[in-house]
Amino acid sequence: MSTSEYSVCIQGLLTEIGYRYEPFPPYDADYWGPFHGWMLHTLGPTSSWGAKQLAELEHAAGGVIERVYPFASTQMKLLFAKLTAIAILIDDSIEDETVHKHLVQFSHRLYRGEPQQNGLLALYYTNMTELSEMYGDDSVLRGFAIVPWINYIDACLMEKQLFNVERGRSKNRDALQPSTHEEGLALKFPHYLRSKSGIAEAYAAGIFKATKDQHLPLTRYIKVLPDLTFYIEVMNDLLSFYKEEIDGETYNLIHLRTRSLSASGVHGSGMNAEWTCYDTLRLLCDEIRQATRSIDGLLRLEDCERKLQGDPGINDIDEVDLEIAMQWRGWRDGYISWHLECRRYKLGFLKFAGTGDPEPSD
């Protein structure tokens, strides 16, 4: 797939869903000061990472949370930023056998009420409990916000097992390969695997809980959660794919889904009518487009924006509708803007009218 083909797909998608560039907010010392101190003095000592790696982690975890939760309290943003930083660190440290040994025991110890023996995982657990307290008596939303962080550990372990098998097969041509029949029947597995490690439901819960005191009726937004979690997971896959192609990464949603669809006999745009990664990219763009329209429609985003602009014809929108819709809008645009500007993803070649043509940030 050429850069031009990728660019046309992504630009077309973002134009059609009405993406609006959201610039970085002004520096918030109340957010970045405590987060930097925590990274340096609390998280840092639990890992083997050096100062440069920790600085990059701070920038990524702190930056994305600040961008996607523009209405959230400092306390809420800090908890999500801390958990995000730990999750990234866990994923990047799983090849360490000592860390892996403790990860295997994480959920077992959690369910038995036993303390974690690893400092990183103890910190992870502490921040989960603090986030849980933010949800008060809302047990349903708390479940959405907390359980995915627990499942994430087991998802990392599952991915490690699967990836090790893949890596072994690539090194040993005589090793038993999965049959085309098996790949073709497992059409839903690629997204199942992605959904287990995406923590998307937890991030979605954060959209509808900006502060400890905010209580938005579950019935006003619950029906968007399937499409919203899909949006969170797959938009990241779409916007990180260019970088992963440069790095030669093939164990991701787009490649795995391409394999499944190709093995199932679906015809694509390849020279011999085979299904390709480009076909999967276009398919995912279509699915994201449909999911975005569904979320916008269910949350009445357009009507809410017209109401805020003073349209007298919109008289059945209340303050709760406005809060929900604007918090979704903040996530939706902030999430994309962060990806486009983060140097990690190498997307500086993507330019959009009305965005100020942002340059990737350090």
UniProtKB/TrEMBL annotation:
It comes from the Eukaryota. Belongs to the trichodiene synthase family. Gene3D superfamilies: Farnesyl Diphosphate Synthase. Pfam families: TRI5 (PF06330). It comes from Mycena albidolilacea. This is Isoprenoid synthase domain-containing protein. One of its GO terms (molecular function) is carbon-oxygen lyase activity, acting on phosphates. InterPro entries: Isoprenoid_synthase_dom_sf, Trichodiene_synth. Keywords: Lyase.
